[in-house]
Design brief:
Strand order of the largest sheet: 11-12-10-13-14-9-15
CATH superfamily of the largest domain: P-loop containing nucleotide triphosphate hydrolases
CATH topology of the largest domain: Rossmann fold
Shape: globular
Number of strands: 32
Structural class: alpha/beta
Distance between the termini: 40 Å
CATH architecture of the largest domain: 3-Layer(aba) Sandwich
Number of helices: 23
Helix content: 25-40%
Largest sheet: 7 strands, parallel
Number of domains: 5
Oligomer: single chain
Radius of gyration: 28 Å
């Protein structure tokens, strides 16, 4: 048993679509190898009738593990091959198109092929390392622990009644647990449990009569479209009917409340009438019930959810319903792209600018938009990207003719009547301070909150906490210190140091503002609970709800808060990013942004874009009913173009300014980017390895005379202390940063993120 060489692998890929019976098969297993796309050759017993996409059990060393057949072959240069042991399912669980997608993702995102294939397997069954561990229960000798970490881990496992996933342990306890696990295993103090998938398991799908009955119910009558909506729908229909030669990528750019969802619904209705399937991606799981209700009303019995928040049984049931075409509209998170669609006709990515569409935690670190485009090519299907504030790269592509733009310029009510945008007031918090107001609320926001409460309407108070760092800013003039190399805000590190998290340049924290000499230069930071407390003091009788990551642990928590607020059981909702995303709350007439500067000065090249997007989106929550809305944006930097443009809700004005900044520094979309991140428990070892890798990359760059690439860093990561670990990052920018990594032996301790967010 061996990996196949490059020529054999090319041949294997060419036979991916040929034949059903062959003496040998190439199988991808969940073992990391030197090359990202390695597979292993096995003898195929004739009785199995193996096909591409079959899930099988194969011998691997002294173990038996799960794999996926990726190619059939007539012969092999190997002298002896071990046979496939058994089939897990009688029919293939991965389609040929899904395998093509997996190989593309592996190559683009520099990820092992088994990680990509695992995304597409039935819920609960993948090729990733699912080993569970428990202690052997035999009395250890004191010297068997060898390290303090091994002893700590043993004592932790003693408290657990059932085996735990090794990966979960390392994630929960930190990188030190990896070495501790190895030490316990070497000293026979650990039991390894290798789960075996049940063979030929397929949940019983809903009975056919029930499905047909549900589908026969009358759906909600479609409303009359506005002229821009009708024009957009006709363009999409024309593209669907025009075959593979027409443009299949659309940007539906419409102001908040302009009726983008109705365009989605009518386009999907047309696709369903042709017997094809649809996928609708949403950026936040909390939006799932609201979106499901609307789509289920239009397509009763034909809609399922698909995301990680589902129970295992529901997740598996929905997987098989999609696989069997018993449900043809799939609504979910980015993982819905990997559901087993049989004939995909349309993909909708709602609020396509949201950062949640980028996988950042594990390989492959893909972006849903790019995967959707590749699926469009493989399936000849339409992709619609919807947003009031498109990702800058998306709009750049649209401006260059790669994506067709369709505009919805006006807000509309459910009845079809036009609605005005909310009035936006920007409050300069420097003037509030000068006038003696040291509260977190400006005088205007205080007055507006009280008036809204007395009128019986509702308010949203928004705190932009995502991606915040310890940013130092002058409260007198709004000035924040930025790195002269990167034009990105410094981050504060105790006791008195400022560090650029992009290039590692540092300086001391000044005692006074370099711009205006004021002593009011302070760390900016505030939490949602403090906002709730201050509102309670301002309006003692108000009923207040808090909505953030600390108060919600499941989709049911999201639903409960949203339901209580929508049914007017609370007057004021205080929250973070979640309240800015696509909520339709007609009784909200006031939105207050507590401090727009948080996030604007984060150590992120997209900081201005993120700030503009979230301010525009949260402003769109006000005045969606009969009353005109009012938005109050509090800031120490009202002159900043992101805040000015958001206050005017003018995307083009922001884009023109931001694209100029990106061009001047050759930032994306004018270059590709790969970020390498290192997390190690020992700070000394981490620093040494980061410097070694940085020097190795720069040396390789010089030796190959690659002039269109540049390396920034190594520098401490913005998450510089993750569970006690030391974190470093290196950024590679240029037209083709992949070419540099092809020449470097990258240790597994480094994480690779292509086109990071």
């Amino acid at each position: 048993m061996s990996t196949i060489d490059a020529s054999e692998q090319s041949k294997a890929k060419s036979t991916l679509l040929i034949g059903n019976r062959s003496p040998y098969v190439d199988v991808v297993v969940g073992i990391r190898t030197e090359r990202l796309s390695d597979s292993f050759t096995y003898y195929a017993p004739p009785d199995f009738n193996l096909q591409v996409g079959h899930q099988v059990r194969v011998p691997f060393g002294k173990k038996e593990i799960t794999g996926i057949v990726v190619a059939l072959r007539e012969n092999t240069s190997l002298g002896y091959t071990k046979p496939v042991n058994s089939l897990v399912h009688e029919s293939p669980v991965i389609s040929r198109r899904q395998l093509q997608l997996a190989y593309w993702m592996s190559e683009k995102y520099l990820s092992p092929i088994h990680e990509a294939i695992s995304l597409m397997m039935p819920p609960g069954q993948n090729l990733k390392n699912m080993q569970k561990v428990s202690i052997s229960r035999k009395m250890p000798k004191p010297n068997q622990f060898r390290t303090e970490g091994a002893k700590r881990l043993y004592e932790y496992l003693e408290t657990k009644k059932s085996p735990l996933l090794a990966k979960t342990l390392i994630t929960r306890l930190g990188p030190w647990a990896r070495n501790a696990l190895l030490t316990l295993h070497r000293n026979h103090l650990l039991k390894i449990h290798e789960p075996v998938p049940k063979q030929n398991t397929q949940l019983v799908s809903p009975s056919e009569p029930f499905v047909q009955l549900a589908k026969s119910n009358n759906s909600v009558i479609s409303p009359v479209l506005t002229q821009p909506q009708s024009k957009a729908v006709e363009k999409i229909k024309f593209s669907i009917n025009s075959g593979s030669n027409s443009n299949k990528k659309f940007l539906l750019k419409g102001v908040t409340g302009s009726g983008k969802t109705e365009v989605y619904l009518q386009a999907i209705s047309y696709v369903l009438s042709q017997g094809r399937q649809a996928v609708v991606l949403i950026p936040e799981l909390s939006l799932t019930p609201q979106m499901l209700d609307r789509f289920e009303a239009r397509f009763p019995g034909n809609v399922v959810a698909f995301h990680s928040g589902l129970s295992d049984s529901v997740h598996r049931k929905n997987w098989w319903m999609i696989h069997n075409k018993q449900a043809n509209v799939v609504i979910g998170s980015r993982s819905a792209l990997f559901a087993p669609h049989r004939d995909l006709g349309i993909i909708v990515i709602d609020e396509e600018h949201e950062w949640t569409y980028k996988q950042q935690e594990q390989q492959p670190r893909y972006h849903a938009r790019d995967v959707a485009f590749r699926l469009s090519e493989l399936n000849d299907c339409v992709v619609i990207l919807g947003s009031a504030t498109p990702d800058l790269s998306t709009y750049y592509s649209a401006q260059n003719g790669l994506i067709e733009t369709m505009e919805l310029p006006s807000r509309i009510q459910d009845s079809g009547a036009f609605l005005p945008l909310a009035k936006v007031s920007t409050v300069d918090m420097r003037m509030e301070l000068k006038n003696g107001n040291r509260s977190i609320f400006s005088d205007l926001l205080k007055t507006s909150l009280i008036e809204t409460y007395e009128q019986g309407n509702q308010s949203l108070l928004f705190l932009n906490r995502r991606g915040t760092a310890n940013i130092v800013q002058c409260r007198s003039c709004g000035f924040s210190l930025k790195c002269s190399r990167c034009n990105i805000a410094y981050t504060f590190h105790a006791p008195n140091k400022l560090i650029c998290h992009r290039c590692n340049k540092s300086r001391l924290t000044p005692n006074s503002c370099p711009n205006c000499k004021s002593s009011q230069i302070k760390y900016l930071g505030i939490g949602t609970q403090r906002v709730v407390d201050k509102v309670s003091e301002l309006i003692p009788g108000a009923k207040i709800l808090r909505w953030d990551r600390d108060t919600v642990k499941s989709i049911k928590d999201h639903e409960a808060i949203l339901s209580n607020f929508a049914s007017r059981k609370a007057n004021i909702l205080v929250g973070t990013q979640m309240i800015a995303k696509g909520l339709h709350l007609p009784n909200v007439t006031l939105v207050g942004v507590i401090l727009a500067d948080i996030g604007l000065n984060s150590a992120d090249l997209r900081a201005s874009e993120r700030t503009f997007q979230v301010l525009t989106q949260v402003a769109g929550r006000a005045g969606r009913g009969e009353s005109v809305g009012h938005v109050v944006i509090q800031t120490y930097n009202p002159e900043h173009y992101a805040i000015r443009s958001a206050a005017k809700q003018n995307y083009k004005e922001f884009y023109d300014k931001e694209i100029q900044f990106r061009r001047s520094l050759s930032y994306p979309p004018y270059s590709g980017q790969i970020r390498l991140t290192l997390n190690l428990q020992n700070p000394t070892v981490a620093t040494r390895e980061a410097q070694r890798m940085g020097n190795a990359l720069k040396s390789e760059l010089r030796s190959w005379d690659i002039r269109d690439l540049r390396i920034i860093g190594p520098a401490p990561s913005s998450q510089s202390s993750i569970r006690g670990s030391s974190s470093w990052s290196i950024n590679i920018l240029g037209l083709n940063p992949h070419m540099l990594l092809e020449k470097i032996n990258l240790p597994h301790s480094w994480k690779v993120d292509v086109d990071p967010y």
